[in-house]
Amino acid sequence: MSRFSRVCRRRTTSMALVMTMSVALVSAQTRIVPPKNKYSPEEDVKLGREAAAEVRQEYPIIEDRDIDGYLDELGRRLVAVAPADLKHPAFEYSFTPVNLKEINAFALPGGPMFVNRGMFTAASAEGEVIGVMAHELAHVLLRHGTANATKAQGFQLGALAGAIAGAVIGGGWGQAISQGSQFGLGTWLLKYSRDYEKQADLLGAQIMARAGYDPRDLARMFETIQKESSGAPPQWLSSHPNPGNRSQYIAEEAAKLSIANRPDQSGFARVKARFDTLPAAKSMSDAGRNTGGASTTSVGTIGQPVPPPARNYRTARGGQLFQVSVPTNWTAVSSNSAVKFVPQNAYGEARGQVVLTHGVELGVARASSRDLRQATETLVRAFMEGNPEMRVGAGSSTVRLSGRTALATPLIGRSALGGNERVGVYTTFLADGNLFYYLTVVPDDDAAAYQAAFDRVGQSIRLTDR
Ligand SMILES: [Zn+2]
User: Fold this and answer.
1) CA 172 to ligand 1 center in whole angstroms
2) Angle of CA points 237, 238, 240, to nearest 5°
3) Structural domains for the chain
4) Among 129-143, 184-198, 211-225, 344-358, which is the least confidently predicted range?
5) Using N-to-C axis directions, what is the helix angle for 65-81 and 126-141, rounded to 10°?
6) Ligand 1: centre distance to CA 426 (Å)
7) Best-predicted range by mean pLDDT among 32-46, 146-160, 233-247?
């Protein structure tokens, strides 16, 4: 707008005309209203900060002064021209490059943004990368993550941090459960509705224009992402669904905007060359293997035969927290707050998702209540929120777990192998008030063959937190 005024001033004679035209232009751009949100901006920041710390631990972060500096510069250009009323003073913006091949970028509530190297590889101009960044920044400014949480009844902020962290990394209890049994507890927090997507596109376009970039570059990047991913939908598109006519409405919005002076874009080619000097980018699954198994994404291949539980058992420990006996042919897959034990070919990717078809998981979740039934209900409801196909089975019952009162909640879901799967959720309180859970997953067809093993594993659990 300021550039437009300057241009006009040079050309026109009447100040009144300038004013009229400026006002007309301002009112022409689509007005974006942040959705209802019961959380405070400070809560966004806290949530994002915790999740970002986990991301930094588990992702191959690029530490290169040129690349860091460049990405930071792009980010600052956008923040500088973002609408003042959406820039909450508490927000902490950061822009971090990640050495991953996948064309992906994501931003956490309150400001931390991560951009994969794959995004740069796929982009043919700076405007395309900054377009995706503007879109992500718009999600932050409009506080879409906590707006999602606001919509989810009974969701507790304590559970949110884990859920978000879980959604973006290969570990954490949120994702461990959500992906493990296809609940989607984690994924829905960073998975935006089509309404939110359109908001982020339009606000992103407006911010781009003010920073001196043509919003049509954003549309072009979306087309590239779509094209590069013929076959499996890429991660980015699965959390940012296409509202339809994306390119068209971005072009329409662009036509209403005046694009500020084009900034220096020579950094783009320089940084692309700089990337070539780094060690090769990893894929998500390589990254998992390189973090000490913290986010291993497969044990064999989904769809291949899964061997029955071995007759012999071995003892395993979950940090200071518990001890358990598991069949000797089950492999441990651990993350920060959970350990899965899975037979061969029961954990891995199926149709773009990491799934657990057979096995158990033991972990910790933050409790939403001091009442076990309520805390469990919150957890289970949050699981089901993200997975409409999941339903509660026969109703919960009181059982014993490591000598403590526990709740058993049977669920029924869809197995990645086809047909139904049975999910058992066993919960009890730890001494510190957190919720300990023991989760079992098996397809209906194999349920009988696994029941004895699940019982024996459950009975062997010894909590050692006090
Ligand atoms: Zn989006």
Assistant:
1) 23
2) 55
3) 1-27 (no CATH), 31-285 (no CATH), 298-463 (3.40.1000.10)
4) 184-198
5) 60
6) 35
7) 32-46
